[in-house]
Every structure is written in C-alpha cells, then in structure tokens.
Amino acid sequence: MIELRTPTQIEQMRPAGRFVAEVLTHLKDVADVGVNLLDLDAEAHRMIKERGAESCYIDYHPSFGAMPFGHVLCTSVNDAVLHGLPHDYTLRDGDLLSLDFAVSVDGWVSDSAISLVVGTPRDEDLALIATTEQALEAGIAAARVGNRLGDISAAIGAVAHAAGLGVNLQFGGHGVGRTMHGDPHVANDGQAGRGFPLKAGLVIAIEPWFLHTTDEIYIDQDGWTIKSVDGSRGAHSEHTVAITADGPLILTARA
Predict the structure, then answer these.
(1) Do 173 and 238 form a contact (C-beta atoms < 8 A)?
(2) Is residue 165 a part of any domain in this protein?
(3) Do 74 and 65 touch, CB atoms closer than 8 A?
(4) Number of domains present in the structure of the chain
(5) Is residue 255 a part of any domain in this protein?
(6) Bridge-partner residues for 113, per DSSP?
(7) Is 2 part of a structural domain of the chain?
(8) Could you tell me the sign of the dihedral formed by the alpha carbons of 228, 21, 47, 51, in that order?
(9) Would you say the pTM of this structure is higher than 0.90?
(10) For 30, which DSSP code?
(11) What is the pLDDT along the chain (255 residues), one digit of tens a residue?
C-alpha cells in the first residue's frame, strides 16, 4: 500500500535523513587503503548507538537473503554492487566501494548510498560513479507533483542508456516511512507518463545502480552480496526524497 505523509510527518523524518547523511560522509572519509570492511561496519554501529538510532539492516531477512543480515552497513566492493555483506576484507588501492546505510530515528526511516574509489582511481570507475550520481539527480528532478512514477524511472534510464549502460530491473528504489522498504517500487528504467501519479507526501528512496559491461547479476555464496556475472565493477547512488508541493526535498542531502 502506498502511503502519503503529512508536512508535519516529513519534518519529523528530517533527523533520520540528517543522521544517515552524517554517517555516510564520515565513513567516506574513514574508508582508505588498509581499512577493513568490518571496521567500517563497527564505526557505523558505534555512531548508531551514540545517536540512539535503530539499524534497519541488522535483523533484516527478506526472501532473497540467506539469513538475517547481521550488520548495520552494506559494503560492496568492485564487482559487488548491492547488499554487500561486511566481511574480513582489507581495502586495496583502486577498490571501488559502495556504502549503503539505513536507520530509524524516532520511528522514521531514511536510506542512502554512496560510491567512491579508495586510493588511485580508474577513470572508468569515476565515470561510472558520476553516471549513477547524474541518474540520481535526473530521477530526483522528475519527482514532482503532477508527474508519474514512470517519469522518475525513465529519467534514470535515459542517463544510463546515454552512457551505454544496461539497466537491471530486479532491484531499485522503494517507498520509505516507518519501515525501510515499502510501496511503490521505483524501477531504474521505464516509460514516462506511466504508473502511479506522484502526489505531495510520497517519500521514496531513489537509487540508480549500474555495472560497467552487464546488467546481469547473481547472489554470492555469502547469501547476500549481489555481484555482476562477468566480474565488471558496479556503482550505486541513493537518496531518500520527499515529494512536496514545492518540489522534491532530499532528506539525506550531504553537506
């Protein structure tokens, strides 16, 4: 069921968005060559405890997950693009790292993701990250009252296709509110002018993710981490966005 939030409720969601943005900004500075993924997860866990927030991931166990996630941060490296399960891996020079983080603060959820290169970057990795960020900006720009859900999807897909990238439709954006995942599903490609009419009060996570040379994926033997079938690298960008009468409001905007 698609739920609409009142202006007061959207204001109540702002602290969660600010905290998610704060954590991701901090972790981006912490992530470096020689840092272990488990240490990044522990740092996020420390910040959650200090804030009195609640992780949306640690007990999360959807049908596609082999077991409860058991951590508070998704850490996807290189050919991993989504749901990366933190494990004993030390970041190396040139690694492409995506961080996805969602928490509840005072009963309201926010969800966001960033991608970065640790150490010496490859030009193609920087271009891939930039494409996901441009697609996110395009999707947010289309998140306006009077448009339809398909306008967001089409805007994201147009950026991907212009860059010569394929788009996987198995995982995408979603409604956000009292829980992390709700209706509607926000695909990363689609037809403009189709789908649910966008109304003030709709809060969604918009999250384009792309792979260099494929749109096919598989779940790693850890039961969670989603990887490219051909070993190509992936990037992921995400914001929680409220649709208002004055336009889209990015609740997880980073300074």
Answers:
(1) yes
(2) yes
(3) no
(4) 1
(5) no
(6) 100, 238
(7) no
(8) negative
(9) yes
(10) H
(11) 999 999 999 999 999 999 999 999 999 999 999 999 999 999 999 999 999 999 999 999 998 899 999 999 999 999 999 999 999 999 999 999 999 999 999 999 999 999 999 999 999 999 999 999 999 999 999 999 999 999 999 999 999 999 999 999 999 999 999 999 999 999 999 999 999 999 999 999 999 999 999 999 999 999 999 999 999 999 999 999 999 999 999 999 998
HSE value, Cβ hemisphere, 13 Å, CA-based, for 97: 30
Identify whether 93 is part of a domain.
yes
Cα separation values, 248 from 138, 160, 202, Å: 11, 21, 10
- The 217-219 sheet, strands edge to edge: 80-82, 226-228, 217-219
Q: Give dist(CA 131, CA 24) in Å, integer.
A: 19
CATH of the domain at 222: 3.90.230.10
**Do you know the residue count of the chain?**
255
103 within 8 A of 19, measured Cβ to Cβ:
yes
Domain range enclosing 59: 7-250
